[in-house]
Structure formats: structure tokens, C-alpha cells
Amino acid sequence: MQATSQLTSFPAGRNDHLAVPALLGERGYALRPLCDDDLSWLRELYASTRAEELAPVPWPEASKRAFLDSQFALQHQHYQAHYSDSDFLAIERHGVVVGRYYLQRSAPDHLIVDICLFPGERGHGVAAALIAHSQGEAAALGRGVTLHVQADNVAAQRLYRRAGFALIHDQGSHLLLRWAPG
Fold first, then answer.
1. How far apart are CA 135 and CA 144, in angstroms?
2. pLDDT tens digits for range 3-19
3. Given Cys at both, which of 2, 58, 66, 121 links 73, Cβ 3.0 to 4.6 Å?
């Protein structure tokens, strides 16, 4: 397991980070830049996304945990190395963290790097509201929005298709989707 202190630090939050959509603000949600103190719960959030996949694996729980911790560390390092100019945001509801939203706002298209919620928050419109808000900001600049989704994540694909995203490229394990304004 890679110690939290050994992980790459989050860059200083942008002064103009994405504002919380009004619909979510009315429901008690807020966005704030992530900091290194958030790495522990981010590790747990990541593990929650892999729980179903690892449930049938006949490994001891300690081995599963070590695997998840190493995979989280690799993902974190990748995001920091390749998307360092992104908004790395915690999603909170009434002051309690419920997820993360990583958004790179640059030309030619904005990129949703990652959106992830704890299981109890999934399916309540939070991701859809964040995506719609991000689309509005991109459209105001004449930009589209792209993202990658796992090819086997049918629920996420449904969400993205409802939001107007179309398949650009099938990369095997992941699909590249794009939304265009207008």
C-alpha cells in the first residue's frame, strides 16, 4: 500500500473553479477544491467503485485492500501527471463529502476526467446536474465536452447518452464520447 504522504499532492485549486449548479446548491450540495487531507476518503470512494467487481474474487480481504490501494495510487498519479490543470473538486452535501468531480476546462473541448459518488448518492441526479452545468459553461465558450467511460459501465453510458453525448471512438475497454453545443 502506498502511504498517503507518498502520493502526488493536488495542485493549488484554481481561483475560478467550477461553481456548484443552482439546482444542487438548493439541495445542500457544494463544491470545493481537493487537498491532500482528502486522500483517505478518496481511497474509500475509489474502493466503492470496485466493490462489485472484486466481490467474487477469492482473495483475503487484506489482499483486496492492498490491490485497491495500489490501483487508487496509480489512478491518482495518472490524473495528477496528465490533468494537472483540472479542477479537482470534492462534492459535499451539508458539509459531508459524497464524491469527487475532476474537470479539465480547456480548448478545444472541456474534459470530464472523472465523476464519482459514494453508492448512497448515486442515481439522485447529482452527476447529471454537474454534467449539464459543465456543458453550459463549455457551450458559452463555444466548446464541447468529452469524456471516457468504461465499455462495461452501462449505467454511466445511459446517463451520458441522455445528456447528449455521442460515441466518437471505441477504444476497447473504454469509449470516448463527445457532446457538442447546439
1. 7
2. 555 788 887 766 677 88
3. 2
